[in-house]
Amino acid sequence: MAAAGTITLYLTFFAILLSIILGLVGLKRRREGLIDNSHRADLISVVSVFTAVSLLLRALVSSDFSLKYVAEHTSSNLPVIFKISAMWAGQSGSILLWLFILSIIVLILELDSRYRQQRLDLKLITIINVFRLFFVFLLLMVNSPFTVAEGLLNDGSGLNPMLQSIGMIIHPPILFLGFSGFAIPFALVISALTSNKEEIDWARYSRPWILFSWVMLTAGIVTGGNWAYTELGWGGYWAWDPVENASLFPWLTATALIHSLIMQRKKKGMIIWNYLLISFTFILTIFGTFITRSGIFDSVHSFSDSEIGYYFMVMIVILIIFVLYLFYKNYDNLKFNGERPGFFTRETGMILTNIILLILFAGVFLGTIFPIISEFTGRRIVLDKSFFNQLTVPFWLALIFLMGVCPLLEWKKTDTGAFLKNLFLPLGLTVTTLIIFYIRGYGRGYGQLLAGVAFGISTFALVVIFRDFLKGFRHYYQKGHTGLLSSVYRFFSNNRRRYGAYIVHLGIILMLIGISGSSTFVVEKMASVDPGEEIKLGNYRMEYKGLKMENWLEPRVTATVEVYEGDRFRGKATPEKVFVQGYKQPATNVSILSSLKNDIYFNLAGWQDQKAQLQVSIHPLVAWIWIGSYIIYLGIIVVLWPRRRRG
């Protein structure tokens, strides 16, 4: 197995190298034979990557402990689904996964006829192949998943209990899909600038890939947060950990990019911004991998200190130099020479959105790397989550406010009277929300004050969005004279970009409401109870029933708690500790009773005989974070939905 896997990697390396050489020479000399052979070499490299992945998966599933990677990340009694997910549990496996996804992208480019004009498919593939070649080099020369284990092993070390979760199955592949998808917009813009021709409409070709990659990155961040919340036992979903922040970096720049692409499409503006944002969004995906694998940051997510991270650092430096060189060389072609937008216009709103997103990025980026910067002073200083919260919250609120203001503005020139008239209802309901908030006794302290502002601004943006929805749909429904469902379909298919974006904004607003409520109004209690005793927290009483010890698959200790809200039975919670073979510390399985109103969160912290130490907390509105993410996905589907054909 080891020899076969290594051979496939070498075959991949030389096939990719051959494709790059033949492609470059074929394009320069216009030799069709060389170009055709470049495509054939690409297909060979794709097949060999698929073969390498298949070999590693087979070794993982069959518990072939002759491979060091299999022995380190699986055991014979590990469920099959986690043996499969172990493929991306280690460094070399996750790099192979990234190579696999990039190879799928190459295959898509080979098969999609839209990219064959002006040999665009070959230009894009050649650029992407440079990164594929880099990954194969790392797998061959630095850290291979097909390294032979030392000695004969009867069993492996197993998979870390924290990784034996549905989060481990879906979170890393989704995140890598987001990272990999940005390779195509990067390749498009590099291809356009190095060709010195304007016929490559890189903005149009890039847009669907940017949206796809953005939503995958969003899903990756959300599933990671959900994984932390439901599995790790600390009751939170975002800790401003360096590796968490590394996924947020490209998300922020990509969000800015999506908005500035609208300006380029409508006003032929912000071309320089888009070039830089596309380039640095992709570079930031590489930087995120560097943070994870270099070991220079203290993080629960990162791998141990490894030289592989420094290869990524070299790649990042080369990319930055290359991007800045192309920027300097093509500056005259990139700069905007059209009419500058007026101040009180939607263009200004878009520009402000970009500025705020980039300020957020700069703040989070500098806060994350500050421990490295601080070492030059003689001691390492790590900024905690309170720094990031104080820095970012005002800017997030400003973004939500702009979500409400921008739909009220017009392109080029806004009618001030109409704007003020349209502002009356949402502002009135916003003030009403704030009054109700304070009447209910909230607003004490800085945190609750910010939460009240967040709910008020969210109300403002929601009212504007829903009113615009109703106005547009009513006009379309009355004009079409068709049934309700047919009108809904025709309405969205013909206005998919605008109203799909509104749906995305709606999801983000709901997520903000969930984050504000759950981070501000959480209450918690640690209690030591005997069977029959009750814990009272908020409006709830929790009756502890006792412990149960069993050996189902793995030894586990389970506490049973019945939860009542007043006299109404809310549900039964069963937090537990699971003893995984080969690990000294038991794994934590929290129990969560979830509703739209709040989550009641239970963690079994310890026990002695039948006496249990229970950590209980109430997290208001957490469900709206996950609901908001689903609405975001729906909005992107609407945006990317094919345009309805007329006639």
Low-confidence stretches: none
User: What percentage of the residues does DSSP assign to strands (E)?
Assistant: 5-15%
Tally of individual helices: 20
User: Which percent range fits the helix content?
Assistant: 55-70%
Largest sheet data: 6 strands, antiparallel
Structural class call reads alpha+beta
Characterize the overall form: globular
- Topology order in helix (H) and strand (E) letters: HHHHHHHHHHHHHHHHHHHEEEEEEEEEEH
Q: Measure the end-to-end span.
A: 58 Å
Instruction: Please provide the count of β strands.
Output: 10
Radius of gyration: 27 Å
Q: Roughly what is the average pLDDT, rounded to an integer?
A: 87
Task: Explain what this protein looks like in three dimensions.
Strands 2, 3, 4, 5, 6 and 7 form a six-stranded antiparallel β-sheet that branches. By secondary structure, the protein is α+β, with helices and mostly antiparallel strands. The chain is globular and about 85 Å long. Among the domains are: 1-159, no CATH class; 415-494; 523-624, no CATH class. The protein contains 20 helices and ten strands.
